[in-house]
Amino acid sequence: MRILAQLSPGFDPAAPWLDCEVLAARDTRLFEHYKVRRRSPHTGQEHDFTRLICPEWVNVVAFTAPALGGELLLVEQFRHGIDASTLEIIGGVCSPGEDPALAAARELLEETGHAAARWVSLGSCSPNPAVQNNRCHFFLALDCAPVADLALDPSEELRVWAASLDEALDLLRSGAMDHALVMAAFLRLFLWPGWGDLERTLRAGA
Amino acid sequence: MRILAQLSPGFDPAAPWLDCEVLAARDTRLFEHYKVRRRSPHTGQEHDFTRLICPEWVNVVAFTAPALGGELLLVEQFRHGIDASTLEIIGGVCSPGEDPALAAARELLEETGHAAARWVSLGSCSPNPAVQNNRCHFFLALDCAPVADLALDPSEELRVWAASLDEALDLLRSGAMDHALVMAAFLRLFLWPGWGDLERTLRAGA
Q1: Residue A92 falls inside a structural domain
Q2: Which residues pair with B27 in a beta bridge?
Q3: Is the terminal CB of chain B with fewer CB neighbours within 10 Å at N or C?
């Protein structure tokens, strides 16, 4: 694996952020958080449930063009839920009303500076149907090439990596790449009818 | 696929619950919700982040014994995040201090009435490292057999199904089984070194 891009020479994704303030919260820019009392259609009993109203999400499995190595693009960034850095595929949040396919192309460009020549929909998943109302949409981006600098939010600090297919599989097997939505995207990729042909193409170029 | 167990003869997992009350919430029994202001070690800038402090979760891929059909145990239940029913593998929340392996066996028993003769750890994932601090632990339960009645919380209403391996793969391919954590569990199963042998055993018994 090799680093394709990073914020600054001194950037260390393992360096922890410092807590300035910790507040019990209600709404955030990520979701609206509700407690709902509902009545069962079967028992007539009432129970309380948690509901997070979330925007749609996208995740992108992106491979560079064969002439560029046919490598998987990965993003290493600090994640504040686990207070540690992760390796992930490209991902992000759809803007209100934004088509998920356009959000996928936008996130690929913003997070890696790459654009894809070919796009394939890999379906979608329910990130957590017990409490969240949204879906995460999966896309395969093929023949990616660098076309621009990274364009990140001020709070986003990340490094872009390129990994061979075998390196990516090792990251999944070892658990080093362990984000549930990334794993779900790879399951959809491996079940996609075109995966066998793509795997042969990627291995032939490696 | 065939139904193994359900709450009552009139139980319909597609029947919607009725909202009695909807409140903007803060803490629930599922997680504590915080807004955290943190300072970057790289830029010195402060930014706000959402954090959900969650208990550990478990998911179980459970197959019945060959003599019972070597079928996958699935749970169909109403999910209040998406306000619809889902098909999922067995899953649940660890009690405080509970070993995930024991929680897996407890959930298998409570949700399906089955016990397993053999257990394999399939690793774990980070359900959402951007905002959640917990992990979901995956287990493979083999040679399962019914040993007890279901033991559900009053708010849990579900049907237990048994599916052949091919039916389970079709559910994943078609997107009918689309819970991200269920998909991540199957990715871990398919990357597990023993999967090839298990697949042959399950197909030989089918």
Answers
A1: yes
A2: none
A3: C
